[in-house]
C-alpha cells in the first residue's frame, strides 16, 4: 500500500485521489435565479443526502478564480434552489451547462433545457429531469475556497413511470454518476444483501 500525506500533495493531486476513490458520485443539476432573474444551471458531484427527517441534501461548491460560483452566490442571495437528478436521457444536455458562461447568460437556455415553474420556491426547474427537488437553504458553512450548502427539500417532483409503491425504480430512473476525468457510469449490476438482525 502507498502511504501518502495529503499535506505533501498539491491541491490537484489531492483532487485526483479523492475523485478517483470516492466513486460513483451522484450528480446534482442545480438551477438557481440571479438577482437579475437569469436562470442559472450547473452540475455538481460533491452532492449527497444529509438527513431524511427533515429531508436535507448537501452541495459543496468550489470557488472559481477565487470567488464563489454563480450557483453558490445565487443560493446564498435567494435562499432557494432546485436539485435535479442527472440521468442517461439528460446527461449530454447537463454536461453542456458546465460551460463557463458570464452571470448574465443562462446555461439552461444554452443546453436547450425546458424551464418549468416550481410549486413552492421561485426558482424554476427543468422538465427533462425525472426527479427534481425544490429546496430552501438551511445552512451555509463557508470555508476558504468553497461553500458547503445544506438545503431542505420542500417539494419533490417524480416522474410517474419511475415511481412504484412509494419507491423510485433505479433502472427506470437511469441515474448516472461521476467518476474521474471525463468518465461517467450508469446503473450496473444490482444485488441485495440482507442486514443482520
TrEMBL record:
Pfam families: Flavin_Reduct. Residues 20-170 form the Flavin reductase like domain. SUPFAM superfamilies: FMN-binding split barrel. The keyword Flavoprotein applies. It comes from the Bacteria. One of its GO terms (molecular function) is oxidoreductase activity, acting on the CH-NH group of donors, NAD or NADP as acceptor. This is NADH-FMN oxidoreductase RutF, flavin reductase (DIM6/NTAB) family. Belongs to the flavoredoxin family. The lineage of its organism: Bacteria, Bacillati, Bacillota, Bacilli, Bacillales. Its cofactor is FMN.
